[in-house]
Amino acid sequence: MKIAVASSNWKDVDHFGKTQGFMIYEFDEENMNFIEKRESPKIKGEKHQWQKSLSVIEDCEIVICAQAGLKGKFGLKNAGIKLIEDEGKIEDVLDRFVKHYNFMKKPLF
User: Fold this and answer.
1) Cα Rg for the chain, rounded, in angstroms?
2) In this structure, what DSSP letter does residue 108 have?
3) How many angstroms separate the CA atoms of 3 and 6, rounded?
4) What is the block-wise mean pLDDT of the chain (109 residues), using blocks of 10 residues?
5) Which of 38, 52, 63, 77 has the fewest C-beta atoms lying within 10 Å of its C-beta?
6) Which of 99, 69, 102 is nearest to 83 (CA)?
7) How many CA atoms lie within 13 A of 30 on its CB side?
8) Which residues contact 22 (CB under 8 A, 6 or more apart)?
9) Residue 4 in contact with residue 54, Cβ under 8 Å?
10) Do residues 64 and 81 make contact, with C-beta atoms less than 8 angstroms apart?
11) What's the rounded Cα separation, in Å, for the pair 46 and 10?
């Protein structure tokens, strides 16, 4: 599955509609591999720029961001992209995602 992580500085997870870019990863249920950086320039001070972010990650199944506004959440849902809100360093957030994914895959009994 292809995962987009919102980040303006390529180190920390950022707000979906305000981010200047996305780090794109491929997760095969075992390994998380970096694919590419994608820029998503925003105009400082302009509101509701979430569509610019969405257009950059339309081929992804999951987006991880610190936060997303109501319109952005609605747009992601309509595009079939799952939203995960978490914050911190990208590597820490991805590590938590993998641990949670693996935990949820374990059988209950």
Assistant:
1) 14
2) -
3) 10
4) 97 95 96 96 86 96 97 96 98 96 85
5) 77
6) 69
7) 0
8) 4, 5, 6, 7, 37, 38, 40, 53, 56, 57, 63
9) no
10) no
11) 22
